[in-house]
Amino acid sequence: MTTEHRSLRSELETLTTEAFRPELAEIDTLPTLDIARLMNGEDAAVAGAVALRLPQISAAIDGIAARMAQGGRLVYAGAGTAGRLGILDASECPPTFNTRPGQVVGVIAGGPSAMVTSVEGAEDSAELARTDLDTLGIGPADSVVGVSASGRTPYAVGAVEHARALGALTVGLSCNAGSALAAAAEHGIEVVVGPELLTGSTRLKAGTAQKLVLNMLSTITMIRLGKTYGNLMVDVRASNEKLRARSRRIVALATGASDDEIEAALTATDGEVKPAVLVILAGVDGPTAARLLEESGGHLRAALTATGG
Hints:
Layout: H1 3-13, H2 32-44, H3 46-51, H4 54-69, E1 74-78, H5 80-91, H6 93-97, E2 104-108, H7 126-136, E3 143-147, H8 154-165, E4 169-174, H9 180-184, E5 187-190, H10 205-224, H11 241-255, H12 259-268, H13 273-282, H14 286-295, H15 300-306
């Protein structure tokens, strides 16, 4: 064993996410239902671990929202499972919140092919992370979230260090205390979920914790940016029949209007939900609704207030 491998092994043995649990050493001999119960019990503790970090999560969201309100982007950077989760969250923002192309982005060590195939060695390259961020042209208006269960992955740490040097807001999301990733970031979020059911398999509890936090970062940021009205997705992009039906239902829930009124409002606004709600509630035409929303920075509630609605 080389000195480098020995050092890495020693480092991994200190990580909570890599800890071996001797009480589970014979899990493969148990009935399937018992294994399922064990796994479900493990998962039940994840939300509580996230709850302990809500102040740090909230502070990160406020920072991200402030920069995005000025036109900045939200960028996730990670390797393996962490990188895939970031890309998943980013890819769901356009249909859910009608974000602009490139407004929320996920980058993964090894590039797009790493979404489905392991790219050996990519996660060990901080230089690759710097290259990926430079390709995006990261600057002070942007927010970069490094994601790594161990909190030591060179790609994620390198991304955060480089982004911070470029003046971007940085967040480090990991599942180990005292992580290099959290230390490198302006906002460190360490959700300690404990050892995994399968030793070192951080696609389990750690992956679930990361998904929960990423959900918060994007969703609450979009709420802060006026992408919702109450708990309604008024910026949803109606790109298929299901979403067109959802659009009509959202307008109905927001306004209580009849089907005919809803159809007329959506026709007047080219199918856009947010101005259609304003057309109905404020009694204005489509172009006026669009202007009022522009003047309010896209916040429907503020536009309604401006009209006395």
